[in-house]
Fold Shikimate kinase.
Amino acid sequence: MYAYGGVTIVNAVPAWLGSAMAIDLRVRVYVDICRPTEICYYQSKLVEYIVKYFMKKYNIPRIKVYISSEIPPSSGLKSSSAVSVALIRCITSRFSIYEPSIPRLAAELSRLAGVSFTGALDDASASYYGGIVFTDNLNMNILKVLDLPKEYTTVLLFHATRNPVDVDRLRRCAYMFRDIFELAYQGEIFRAMTMNGLLIARLLGYNEDIPRKALEKGALAAGVSGNGPTIFAITRRGDEGPIYEYFSLYGYTKVVDVIGVGMYENSY
Ligand SMILES: Nc1ncnc2c1ncn2[C@@H]1O[C@H](COP(=O)(O)OP(=O)(O)OP(=O)(O)O)[C@@H](O)[C@H]1O
Ligand SMILES: O=C(O)C1=C[C@@H](O)[C@@H](O)[C@H](O)C1
C-alpha cells in the first residue's frame, strides 16, 4: 500500500488550521506476520507506536513492517504522515479492520507518538485523499477536500537541514495564518501558499530570496514547505525549466507532479 507526500498551503502549527497539497512522492509499506522465531524490529518510534496500537486494540499478531520511501525525512514534505497513513491502510486491510477515518487516526497517533505538533491532520488527509485539503487540527476536522487541475507541477529544492522550530514564535503570529487560511479556503490557493511559505521562511530562519526569485522567474507560488527546509515552487506543467535551472544552483532539485483526488491506487 502506498501514500503520498505533500507541500504546504497553510502551516497548521501557528493557528491549528492547515492546508496541504498532495504530490507524487510515495511511501510504500508492506506488512507480514512476524514468526515466533524471527526478530522483528520497527524502523522508528512512530512505526512502533502504530503497530502497538493495533496489537493492543485489535489483538493482531506481532508484525514486521517494510517501508520504502521517496520522501526525504525531516524535509517538510510530510514523510511521517505518509508513513502513518500507508501503514494504517496496510494493517487495516491485512487484518480486515474497519477504521472510519484513516487520516484522523494517523493524526491522532502521530500526535501521541510525539512526531508532530498538531497531529498534522492536513498532511495525513492530503496523503490519504490526494488533491488539496483543509483541516482544523485542533478539533480533528477535515473541512474540505478539493481536486487539483493536472496542469500544475512542483519544483522542489532539497538544500539544507531543518532549523529548530520555535512553536511559540509561530503561535504569536496565529492571526496572520488565520487570514492566510481564510484566503486559501476562499480559493486563492497560490497566493495563500506564497504568503505562508515566505512567512514561514522568515519565522523559521530560511532563505527568503530563493522563493522570491522563483516568483520573479514565473512561479505561480513559492515558499518553504511544512517546517522546512525544502523550498518549493508551483508552475504550469512545461513551464518549470527556468525554476528548475535556478533551484539547481543551490542544491538537489526535482520536478514532481501534483496528485489529484481519485488518483489514489489501492494496491501495493
Ligand atoms: N521513512 C520513514 N520510516 C520510518 N519512520 C519515519 C519515516 N519518515 C518519518 N518517520 C517517523 O516520523 C518522525 C518525523 O519525521 P520527519 O521529521 O521526517 O517528519 P516530516 O513529516 O518530514 O516533517 P513535516 O511534517 O515537516 O513534513 C521520524 O522521527 C520517524 O519517527
Ligand atoms: O507538526 C505539525 O503539526 C505540522 C507540521 C507541518 O507539516 C505543517 O505544515 C502542518 O500543517 C502541521
Observations:
- The pocket of adenosine-5'-triphosphate (ligand 1) is lined by residues 43-47, 67, 69, 73-81, 83, 115-116, 120, 123, 226-227 (CB under 6 Å).
- The chain is about 40% helix and 25% strand.
